[in-house]
Hints:
The chain is of the alpha+beta class. The chain contains 9 helices and 4 strands.
Amino acid sequence: xxxRQGRCTVxxxxxxxxxxxxxxxxxxxxxxxxAVQDTRPPVALFGLDGTYxxxxxxxxxxxxxxxxxxxxxxxxxEVFKKDTKLPAILNAPTLSSSDKSQIIxxxxxxxxxxxxxxxVKNFLRTLSDNNRLGILQGVCExxxxxxxxxxxxxxxxxxxxxKLDSKTLQRLEQAVSKSEYSQGKKLKVISKVNPDIMGxxxxxxxxxxxxxxxxxxxxxxxxxxxxxx
Length: 229
């Protein structure tokens, strides 16, 4: 028979073994659950560009390269702003494999050293292989939406017939931030120009749209006249 001291020693040893066997398993389960949660896109996106943006977000999250991927796509988004002919080039059905390779090299040059781990480079190759380079601009925009949602931001898109100055945008941001539409979240302001609205503004925040454009007012007036006559 074991002495009292011997029984205590065995009990303590068994307890330590149980703890060593149980805790790692629990921690592994927790880490796995957290990993799955962290790699999921924070919001659901629609459209082909939304599908690809969500897939890129997941891939970047799994490789811990969300920040570098976001900066790389932001750099590409600036390229689209400066080169208005780029979307047409990327959508050209006559692009050869050589053309696509040259385009990807040029886009990489604009990203510079931002693309750590070459996550975006591999993504561009995937788009090229699937003949989807034409959706790159939309992917850049929607990836920005995902990153904003991950940071707890909400997008405020302001569309005008002509470019608005920074002071006007700031006043609009302040006005919306004080309204119920902001939901108390930080606003990410996106300014767009669309001459077709003729004047006024179209304000989009979250899933809500406030149409204060001249074109909208004319359309309502035309409908009223049509219904009256």
